[in-house]
Amino acid sequence: MSILECKGLSKRFGAVTALDGISFTIEPGRIVGLLGPNGSGKTTLIKLANGLLVPTAGELWINGRAPGKESHAMVSYLPERTSLPLWMTVKQLQDFYEDFYADFQRERSEEMLDRLEISAKQRMKHMSKGTREKVQLILAMSRAAKLYLLDEPIAGVDPAARDFILQTILTNYSPESTVLISTHLIADIEPVLDEVIFLKEGRVVRHDSTDNIRGAEGKSVDEVFREVFRTIPMGGEWPC
What we know:
Layout: E1 4-13, E2 16-26, E3 31-35, H1 42-49, E4 57-62, H2 69-72, E5 75-78, H3 90-100, H4 106-115, H5 129-141, E6 147-151, H6 159-171, E7 178-183, H7 186-189, E8 195-200, E9 203-209, H8 210-217, H9 221-229
Parallel strand pairs: 3-7, 3-8, 5-6, 6-7
Antiparallel strand pairs: 1-2, 1-4, 8-9
Helix pairs in contact: 5-6
């Protein structure tokens, strides 16, 4: 059974169409890049999959179920912006996750916090923006989820932090789980991806494995993606 399936999925905000009848399936055990510039519909799709938005038309299933209470138990969501209460300590956040999510693995979170020398007594409001984002990623990846929805996890952080984030993703999900990573930083994320979905103006313009793309095109995924969009200078980043 597919872990994530969309069929004719659309989402409109007034006169603006964020997603326009997209269809695709993602199987378990894959790391998938949801790739596109800002405004392409990536965050909207991830919020729909997490049940934070309701489709205007079409259908979306998580492991054969519509987003809801049952799907929340198997989905770990990392939002684009830090959403954790600033008054809480790391320990209080761990306690909350342990109470709220049956699959939260506290020992795993403590190992990652120790590696970064982040004290469990520290309050979020006393941390830098980058450290807050790392704590939020650690909490998200400390769940034994079937599907991880990560919205722009490496945007706005330095290269060293990007390496930590990618390594955290690779080492903290099981082979049976699926990771969907939304990003506009293609070159950084490409080495960890099994397949990609190119999203342009709310439509899927390509869904393929990274091996197929590199084999058929003789180019990196980043190079192929730049050709599709033709807006990004080589060596640069996607516009915000």
